[in-house]
Amino acid sequence: MSLIKLIFSASLRSRFQIISVRYYSSKSKEILDSAEEVPVFSKENVFSEASEIIRNKSRLTPAHRNILRGQNPYDESMAWYHNTVKYKKRILGRYGMEALKVPAGLAWPTPEEVEDRKEYERIAYPLSIQEQLQKIKEEKKKKEEALMARQMEIAKKMAGMKQLINQVQAKIADKEMKELEAKERKKRKIEEVRQQLIAQGMMNNANLTDALSQMEKEEKKRKKEMKKQKMLERQKKMVEIVRKKLQDDNIDSEAWNENVVDSKKE
């Protein structure tokens, strides 16, 4: 065996001996003599509080670490509200009975609170569950009936939609026809004025423009007179309607007066 192999085997043997001394111990706290001997692990608390602080790399406060672990943040009251019933109820709901450290009966409402709650429910919800269900059914039925009526109305209108479209198209065609007739009538009048000027030997742009402007003024005057005539006719009809209504009222008043006189005589 060479010198290098001897040195390597010696160093390896010394390493294994160091590991066994550090991590294993027998009942007599000596090095194990054989592989059949059962090692005993130390159950003592190896890590102290200082080492725990060193191992805490998160830099969280104890309260925050407890919250992260699902535990009560504080082992004792740190503020005045920690002794209130509301805070105790919250701790009980979040972290359980062990975190509360007081009887859980404080979470149950007092008789006064129960009566207040009953009074609130009696005022806020005067109807019973059966009455509320009946009311919901009635409202649902009304909504369904309204929806059905709306759908029937839409269907009825859609049935007459074709007729309505035909009426609109007829109005548009009538309007277009009237506009076309007005254009043709204007062209004919311009042609008549032009022929008259040619016959008189006065055909030029200035005379044609003057004649056309005069023709437009006469056309506007004629339309104005027609509009005025229609308005007068409408007013006459309104006067006739009012006069007839007044006559009917007078007849009714005379009959009423006669009835009053007869009743007095009796």
Automatic annotation (TrEMBL):
<dbReference type="GO" id="GO:0005840">
    <property type="term" value="C:ribosome"/>
</dbReference>
<keyword id="KW-0175">Coiled coil</keyword>
<dbReference type="InterPro" id="IPR018472">
    <property type="entry name" value="Ribosomal_mL64"/>
</dbReference>
<feature type="region of interest" description="Disordered">
    <location>
        <begin position="214"/>
        <end position="233"/>
    </location>
</feature>
<dbReference type="GO" id="GO:1990904">
    <property type="term" value="C:ribonucleoprotein complex"/>
</dbReference>
<keyword id="KW-0131">Cell cycle</keyword>
<dbReference type="InterPro" id="IPR043035">
    <property type="entry name" value="Ribosomal_mL64_sf"/>
</dbReference>
<keyword id="KW-0539">Nucleus</keyword>
<dbReference type="GO" id="GO:0005739">
    <property type="term" value="C:mitochondrion"/>
</dbReference>
<comment type="function">
    <text>Acts as a negative regulator of G1 to S cell cycle phase progression by inhibiting cyclin-dependent kinases. Inhibitory effects are additive with GADD45 proteins but also occur in the absence of GADD45 proteins. Acts as a repressor of the orphan nuclear receptor NR4A1 by inhibiting AB domain-mediated transcriptional activity. May be involved in the hormone-mediated regulation of NR4A1 transcriptional activity. May play a role in mitochondrial protein synthesis.</text>
</comment>
<keyword id="KW-0689">Ribosomal protein</keyword>
<keyword id="KW-0496">Mitochondrion</keyword>
<comment type="similarity">
    <text>Belongs to the mitochondrion-specific ribosomal protein mL64 family.</text>
</comment>
<keyword id="KW-0687">Ribonucleoprotein</keyword>
<protein>
    <recommendedName>
        <fullName>Large ribosomal subunit protein mL64</fullName>
    </recommendedName>
</protein>
<dbReference type="GO" id="GO:0005634">
    <property type="term" value="C:nucleus"/>
</dbReference>
<dbReference type="Pfam" id="PF10147">
    <property type="entry name" value="CR6_interact"/>
</dbReference>
